[in-house]
Amino acid sequence: MPPSIxxxxxxxxxxxxVFLAPFLWLASTSFRTQAxxxxxxxxxxxxxxxxxxxxxxxxxxxxxxxLAYSVVTTAVSLVVALPVARFIVVRAGRxxxxxxxxxxxxxxxxxxxxxxxxxxxxxxxxxxxxxxxxMGLPTVKLxxxxxxxxxxxxxxxxxxxxxxxxxxxxxLPNDLEQAAASLGAPAAAVWxxxxxPLAMPGVVAGSVLVFCAxxxxxxxxxxxxxxxxxxxxTVAYQQAGQVLDWPFASALAMVALAMIxxxxxxxxxxxxxARRREARQ
Amino acid sequence: xxxxxxxxxxxxxxxxxxxxxxGLPAFAQDFxxxxxxxxxxxxxxxxxxxxxxxxxxxxxxxxxVEFVLGGSGDRMARIYAEKANPTMDVAFVNIYEAPQALxxxxxxxxxxxxxxxxxxxxxxxxxxxxxxxxGLGIAYxxxxxxxxxxxxxxxxxxxxxxxxxxxxxxxEGDGVLGxxxxxxGKDEHDPDAAFGKLKELTPIAMTYTNLDEIFAMMDAGExxxxxxISGYVLxxxxxxxxxxxxxxxxxxxxxxxxxxxLVKNSPEPELAKKFVALALGVKNQTDYxxxxxxxxxxKNVKLSPEVSADVIDTPDEVKGLLQxxxxxxxxxxxxxxxxWNKEILGQ
Lengths: 281, 347
Description:
The structure holds two protein chains of two kinds. Chain A has helices at residues 3-29, 48-55, 57-90, 96-108, 112-122, 127-134, 146-171, 175-182, 187-215, 219-224, 232-243, 246-280. Chain A is mainly alpha-helical. In chain A, helix 5 (112-122) crosses helix 7. The longest helix of chain A has 35 residues, at 246-280. Chain B folds into two domains: 26-132 and 257-316, Periplasmic binding protein-like II (D-Maltodextrin-Binding Protein, domain 2), CATH 3.40.190; 134-255 and 324-344, Periplasmic binding protein-like II (D-Maltodextrin-Binding Protein, domain 2, 3-Layer(aba) Sandwich), CATH 3.40.190. In chain B, strands 1, 2, 3, 4, 7, 8, 9 and 10 form an eight-stranded mixed sheet that branches. The radius of gyration of chain B is 25 Å and the shape is globular.
């Protein structure tokens, strides 16, 4: 055995125990069922959980809704993150470190604290509506609405978009845009034809991260949705933590995982295709 | 010193040592280094259990008591997952989870011969030991609702859109469904009647998950009434003069219980039983009533009239409670969750 594999063994063993084994357990549980009137897993494997998931329009609707939230959150994050990332790279100068550290705060503080903060910002008596009331303006219902959840999701996962973008943009040579500008390209064209294509790896990486994080998110939709809006994460929680239907909750988790796997596969194929097309041009 | 005297001194010393050793309480040795694992809710419940059960137990036995905090769903998942090799000794669960756990062989059946079993109101130890009694009643905004409301008042047209409900599944939701079914002339065995009646309350003003949130909305006049479980609510109301709590009469408040379970084949069954005796004991149950407004299950608890007014603590009060067919309700959980998602919350 080559020594490099020997060195990897501890990490592999740890992953097998803390990641692979629970995952396999989850996967196998999703094919089990609970006997009538019992919470114990019955013998035998079945596809019942998956059939129920795709046969009940409620769960299909939840799946589509969660996909829609993921797409919108990714798009909004991208639009917001691009200028932020660009500012950090080009203008921030010696404040770059501080700004990056600030960006990281929501990531390291977990999902719960920011969501609770948002609760106080967006509540009917919160900062936003309280200020509106004081000024005699109409109030907006944010909690328990898709808009409220989307604001919370973008706030939570924006750093996942900004950081890869900062990474890619920082590697672009400064003089590229100047070269483009000196050749007569207006600012918009510089963005569209020079910066964006070169930042594509960052855009893709950030989008995948935000999409996956949104698709599997639970705390933010649970808190900001006020129980009104079911997403994949909240339904899985409801089944696992409250209904105590662990097999069905496992099936929900497996489907979420499959969606993420599909996305990953699509992106791999897509980027290979794009590279081939580039090579041909 | 002669040999004889020496040996006599040695014998005396030996005897003294033996006496001292024998005089030490045997149990203090038995449980040294052992740990009792107790799963319960955090906050005030943990505080009282620590103070009235864990600390005396540690002092008496030399064992350590470790609390694992979380919701009862977490604990159910844990004892089911660990059924071959349990690591939790005592688990606090809800009224509807205890019979299920007993049926599935996860917990020890309550022992009718145990003194703490006999101290509890007759017929209350279903599945596990009954820990406390609370009832689902109505919290209401006193400015919008002038007298303590009955259940039917929630359906009055002037309160349309101003009724809040808790998240489902949960005892509150099941209780409201039981009440709605009865107002429709049926009971919880007719889910169509229950959901049909409850649906008349939609749109729901909010789904509350914590008391601060719902009380703020009530104080602001956005919510007129919300079915809530007595206990914490009554404790919290002391700081909300404009919010009242009503125990309705037709039907009466829905009985909800916290249950205390001994996990089957747990590592420390003896310690667990000692813990149960302390948790169900008069001191802890009195503190539960006085501080948390949780009604005692121990018949020997004597409460002052002021505390007694806010808690369910007499046989008559217990008789007036609406008792749901929990095993049936649990068997419907999955379907009802779907119906709640679609019919009560659906946009």
